[in-house]
Predict the 3D structure of the following.
Amino acid sequence: RGGGEVQEKGAGGADFGVDFGLMGGRGQKKAAPWLANPPSGYVGPFRSNVRAFLDAFGTLKSPNRAASVQSRMWTVPLSVPQGSGVSNKKTIDLVVFEQSMILDTGVVVCDNCRVAGWNSHPVCNLSYHFIIPARKLEVNWRAGESVVQATLLENQSHLLHGNLHANGFGHLLRVNGYEGGSLVLSGRQMMEVWTNLCTLLKARVVTVEDVSHKCGLPYRLLHSIAHKTTWYGKWGYTFCRGPFNTTEAAWVAAVARLNALPLQSFKSEVKRHGLQFLPSLSSYEEGAKSKCKTVGDLVRLVLHSANVNLMSARGRQGPGGRVAHSQKPKFKETLVSNMEAANVRIDDFQFPACRWSDNRLKLAAYVVLNTLSGTSSWMSRQDVRDTARHYIGDTGLLDFVLKVMGNQVVGGNLIRREFNANTRVLEYKIEILSGEKALPIVLPGMNGQGAPRAKAKPNPQNDLKLLYNALVHQLDAKPGRTAAAPSWQADVRVLLDTKQFEKNYYGEEGAAGGGGARDPAAKHRAMKRLLVTVKLEDGVATPRGKNQAHQSRAHKVAIPSEILVIPESSTVKQLKEEISSAMGDIYTIFGQFQVTEIISGIRNVQVPDHARLRDLKVDRFIVARGVGVSPNTLFYHVGGVEDWIVDCICGTKDDDGERMVECERCSRWVHTRCYGVPDSAPCPENFVCSKCRKHPRRG
């Protein structure tokens, strides 16, 4: 249940370009692809709007429904506007896959609905997937339903993948932009496409699991500190649900505190914990022409620079998306003369036998020495490796040289190597021995042979890593085993834990008894837009567990209100028929359902079936009751029918997507982390919760 791993199916499981890096030429944002002749707008509910959309713009690509495959697929061409950054293409295909949810004989579960808190919704008949593939899809329709669905829905390389159930509730599953491998569209452009789709089709509520990364780091933390909202917040996504009983108020407060944390206090505490701070802070301030006063200011500037660098690299891409690098300097021709001028006697150091030649070993050693001599501070092994790779492309050679040179005298310099207990990484530092000429020496091709060493340019990607390492310092350390934790640790934990965000598209907006003021045509036809739902009998809303007599496990079915557009001249009997039809169209359990009475929403005391709606006092919300609900409980809850109870010491009472363990005595599920077991450690066996420890069984 749950799991400590990053879920790659979450939106943004791969990286994407954002913010300033998404600007086109001359600071203009690149236009997003969209329909060539979009409709003025649909007025019905999502279930009817998506059908009208596919009828008008879609081309059916799947064969006629047969016994082997019931799902269908369309392609919808999206026009590529000028200035979109997409060359040699006039259109790109949006793939729409209509998934039949009732074909499985097993339990039908949507994990995303469960984690979002929609466990109580019944299973929909259909679910629609909107996909922009990274490459042309090859679908073998003869292979059967399971193979077709696996080909389309489990592909993690899609540039965009969103899912909307027939009731209008859905999930943004994946956005892969430039850093995620896209050669066509940026992350922002795909978010614009997704937002336009949801708005046009009148989606209800859409969630996203924010596991996005920037430069390999959790972006929900960095972007929230810099801009006081997640990257998805720019499109209206707000807090949905927090794990470990985290509330929206707690998340908002944590974001505000980290954003406003005084930079001087942060810097002092970073140094007190023995961590490396940004060596190029002044360079960022000079570029922004302003002083950084808070951590939010600093993270925002570094993110800006990182985005600019990433998009500059994108701009250097040649045919096929490959970056056109400048030719590297020829070190072999100048190696001997440079080493003699520097008085660095690498010949004195004997490398053990290996597969590399002496000249390549000497060159790698020279580059490593020069890299380490550029700072008086300790450098992590990864940072040394990343810098040296600009000149040495063979990572195996670099790894070998770093290993051999550790704690050895090379060229009259002591290369110290130690394990940092705080960061848990290997670090290197150069120590110049007495009587020897100090490095660094300007490397060929950097700033000019023999020229004075220029001021190093900031490396925003590495600086982001330094900031992240400082923010998460001792985050998973056990209490009492290390020094006092940084003051910001609890707030960082809240931001990293919170991944579920949602956007309410207000698809029901305008559904009022007044009759569609937003739609002139509907008003002309005297239509009523209503929100309708169904109340189930207590005997129908059975508990989720196997032991249905256990009332604590009762989990009633909750039917979301649905939009219904009906003429004002309709009778009450026709209203009942329309509600029955709508519910049967959406949900599996209502296939044979018939409304018998309206129990709320019509304020008249006695309402005969032949009465016209225009003659009655009809409220915005209608609640009905009926008969014919399916007895198959497998389709009662989209969150599943597992027999489990969540009752953690943090206050969580339902599945929040985090890793849990079951108490072997009371069968309650609790978070492993709340009991001191980090997500990186194995799940404990023979676990007993704190309540059972306090009150052990007798006998």
